[in-house]
Amino acid sequence: MGRPRGFREEVVLESAAEAFVHGGYEATSVDDLVQRLGLHRGSLYQAFGSKRGLFLAALRHHIRTKLTAGPGSLRPGGSTAFQVGAVADSSRLDLLLVAALERGHSDAEVAVAVRGALTDLEQAIDSDLPVPRSTDTSARPVRALGLLADRLYERLI
Amino acid sequence: MATILIEGQNLTIEVEGLDKLWALKSRLTIPLAHVRGATADPGIVDEPKGWRGPGAHIPGVIVAGTFHQDGKKVFWDVHDKTKAVVIELKDETYQRLVVEVADPRATVEVIERAVSER
Question: In what order do the strands lie in the sheet with B2-7?
Fold first, then answer.
């Protein structure tokens, strides 16, 4: 779509990610999103097609900018990532938790995005280890999963 | 109330009962390629709907027919707002369909899956 949308997509995607982390996927209504994103309902539907479309776009944007690239994220080949816990701010993992728990079993595109993010994290952690581990990409990303589990534990009040 | 089915590469929406009279259409067939997504959205019923024509609008009772908003056509068939589903389209007469279905969550899953798998 070449038309200017009259809003900054990345700002909208970041606000959407926050909304979904805050309320969960299912419980976040379009009313909540419209209010939080400052968009008209019609614009939201026109830009993203559906709530799921918005979620998927927000998830992919988040993975791209906050987890696997961008400042403070895990960059493959980075030197200290593993020691500092791989992700500078572990709350960045929260959207992955929501996606995996609420959508990962029923939505193939969400599952692919989450699996991809975990694989990337795993590779980044691996590249920080003195001796690179297995290059078998079909293996479970156990260390990245460990980060997710850590984050779950950290969130307990 | 409407019944929504995926038939081959099409999405069909069958408007049931007396709503056929109000909505002035009993069946819509949309190629899946023109369906962008579906969302359960009770809140949309409380928003301004634009101007009506043709169809019926008795606030609090029924919204049915074609409404025009921001130069776009929206098809409505809703009595019970808790069961409203929004189906976003492209390259169609209607930009959007807002219909009442028996099970919004299941309907949304079926449509979203059909759209993402095509």
Answer: B2-7, B10-15, B27-31
